[in-house]
Structure formats: structure tokens, C-alpha cells
């Protein structure tokens, strides 16, 4: 994830918290929330995601120093958390959500359901920290934060444009896509753990031919 250009950082964030993943999260909420409330949820959660990313990106070097965290350790922790979340998707267990939906879901419950997969996405925050700490330069950290905010802006535009389509999407379709996405995200989490182990000097297993 050691990207050194805006476009490379943008691609990194698009892959971990881009529209494909965010739209799926909002699709579940669209089944039980009215359109006006869903728009508010999208705007509030996106603003929270921008705030968290901004603070995390700008203060990344100090955060890592304060907690004595190395980049490989961060990769391992982020990969494990993301893997557990992805396994939950595959098994149909929505971690971080209220097990039983309310009869009349409100704004707070909707934003709360998006905390784990969107606002504080483990892989997105890991990517922000690793990217921002790649160079000891405020200019570079600003570039990383700018790329992250651009992806979040793209997310919210896609959500607002597709809200009515998401409301018409059948629940079974959402579950199927969610489990498929969970499988792919589990692989991403494993890859992040392997990167962390590699950076720690753990030798690779020999490959059979």
C-alpha cells in the first residue's frame, strides 16, 4: 500500500471503501428506512467517515508513535478484524448491527449500523494510517486525505443517485451479493495479514510446482 501519487492512493481507497462495498451496506438499510431518512443517513455517515479519515490521516505518524505501533502490526490487526467481519458476511451474521430491527427504524439506528462497515471500516482506516505514514510530510498526508475524501464523496453521490433502485432490490439479492462480497473481502483480509507477516520477516512457504 505504499503509494506515492494521488491516483495510486485514490485506487487504494476505492478498492477498500468504494461504491461497490458502500452501496451494498446501504442496500440493506434501504429495505427498512424511508427515502428521506436514508438520504440523511448517507450524508451523516459520510460526514463522519470524512471526519474520522481526516483526523486519522493527518495525525497518523503521531498515532503510531503514541501507541508504539509498527506498520506490520497495524496490517496484522486490520487484516484480522476485516477477516472476521468478512466471515460474518459470508455466514449471514451482520457484526455491529442491532440483531433485531425496530418496527420504525430511526436515523440513529441507521447510522449505527454503518459504523463498522463504512464509517470506521477497519481496512479503510488501516489503509489511511499506512498510506499517511509512508512519508514524513504534511503535504503527502494531505494528499492521502484528499484521495480518501474524494472516494467518500463518490460514495455518497452514488448512494443518493441510486437510493430508489436500492429500495427495490430484493432482500435475497442483497444477501447473495453480501455473501459473495464477504468471500472477496476475506481474501483481502488474509492478504493484508500475509503482507504484515512478510514485513516482519516471516519467510514465505515454498510453493510446489
Number of distinct beta strands: 0
> What's the main sheet like?
none
Structural class: mainly alpha
Order of helices and strands: HHHHHHHHHH
Count of runs of 4 or more consecutive helical residues: 10
- What's the mean pLDDT score? 81
Name the overall outline.
globular
Q: Report the end-to-end length measured between terminal Cα atoms.
A: 29 Å
Percentage of residues in strands: under 5%
Rounded radius of gyration (Å): 18 Å
Helix content: over 70%
Flag low-confidence runs: none
Description:
- The protein is 76% helix and 0% strand.
- It has 209 residues and is mostly helical.
- Helix 3 runs parallel beside helix 8 (122-132).
- The model has no long low-confidence stretch (mean pLDDT 81).
Short précis:
This protein is mainly α and 209 residues long.
Key phrases:
single chain; 209 residues; mainly alpha
Topology, pairings included?
Blueprint: H1 6-17, H2 19-30, H3 35-58, H4 60-66, H5 71-91, H6 107-113, H7 115-119, H8 122-132, H9 138-168, H10 171-199
Helix pairs in contact: 1-8, 1-9, 2-9, 2-10, 3-6, 3-8, 3-9, 5-8, 5-10
